[in-house]
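dumping this here before i forget
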Amino acid sequence: MWAASVAVVAALTALIAWSCWQRWQLLAASPFPLGVDGYFYPLELRSLLAHGELQYPASPLTFYLLAPFAAMTDPITGAKLGAAVLGAAIAGPAYGVGARLGGGRGAGLVAAVLATTSVGSAYLTIEFVKNGIGLTVALAALWLVLRAVERPTRLAMAGAGAALVAAYATHKMAGALVLVVAIPVVLTAAAAHGALRTRRAIVVGAGLAAIAIAVLAVGAAFPHRVLSVADAQLVRGLWSRTPHWTAPALVSRTGELAIGHDALLGLGLGLVALVARLAPGRAAQLAARARARSAAAWRRVARRRRSGLPATREAPPLDGPDPAAAAPGIAAPPPVVVAAGWPIVVLAIAIGVPFLAVTDRQGLGFRLRIAAFVPAALTAAIVARDLLGRYRHRDYGLAGLALVLAVARSPGSQLDGEIITHPALVTAAQALNGQIPRDAILIVPERHIAFLVAWYTGATVAIRPDGIPPAHRFRLLPLHFIGAGTALDHQLMAARAEPSVPPPLGVHPRHPNGLVLVAEPTWAWILARLPDDDRAYFTAWPTI
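structure:
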């Protein structure tokens, strides 16, 4: 047993180290932050290290986990290094949860490999760091919850409770995932210990109600930091009439960029697990009948022997093993494991449905599709238990499968859909220093450029103009927002020769309208001269 434990620890250590190195190679390919929110993390870390608080409201624990890496290096390097380490560390808790759901070390290793080598996991390390770290913390919380219900000591329950709070404070999706799985597990464990009977049920219900009220209160007070009731509105746009089979998928104007097939894998495994869980009902009936017939045959043989009559030729010898008892069978998982498995299987199937809305990068459907590797990996462990539970040496076979998957699966040197910061854009942002009025608020229609400009200039930025006094508004327009050769492009050039308004300031080194700073009076002058359709479009201020 100790040799197997040492082998598992060595395998997980090697897997985490290898995955961390691969992720670091992806992140270190550019000296600048990667991803649509690339500069958001250095901004938060710089503020946290300098002032002890975040610059923008967000789930706080992620940045406290990244802070040691930033303190050892710098905010940009630290954000990358922490994303690589904490993203690869998902192998540990994925193994712990997978081993319990799958009933053995082999199933845990398969879950760890699938979760760690997933292209979706690598994509989160680049594009949505907070989400990737949140899933690592969420699986760690689920692992501690499963351990606590198996051995409900005070220390185990305290650790599970702290982990649940940590997941809630790391990312909204992490908090939701933990709640969806942990609630049925805790209720099943409470029912098994008789805590849902008579007066105990009142105490348990009151405790759960108090926790729910506290969660709702914290969410209402900090809706931008933790999961809140307001996030339920995201479900309304969860489905689409247009199917998208790529999993996960990044959809742009030029088409779909497939960055893995975790959702399809999860959908297939989820359907297999669903059939395996529903089919055993008939199998159990047949097995019970066979055991009953065998027991009846044994009783008949025993009666004939006691009466001195010869046993029938078909009867088994009395001194041998009971064939029905010796036949291999699938060990039934504990009720808490069954309770944990159902929401995971349902989630894997739901994410794999092609009608999930994935066209909005900030939408819930897109985020779920990218995170499909988590339910897919855990469902693989469930399938391993349901289908291979009868084999005595299944752990060895599953360990071999995990090794093959670890060698065959790799995100490669570049991911489809990753957003890379262009050096010319950095030069343009740096050229804004000294050009922005002290009380100005830059209205930037794209998050990536907004955080980039805030990093290099220290200016106050916003995505939308709502609620900002016109005297403080300055529009910062990138070329892909303007459109080369469009009416807006021509009017920006014309405004430079108009003496009645402040001229637009182009700071991009390669195009006069590559990145343009426009005062609000100039913006109003330009809008008035655009065609009606363009005026309505840009007045609405579309954001990316």
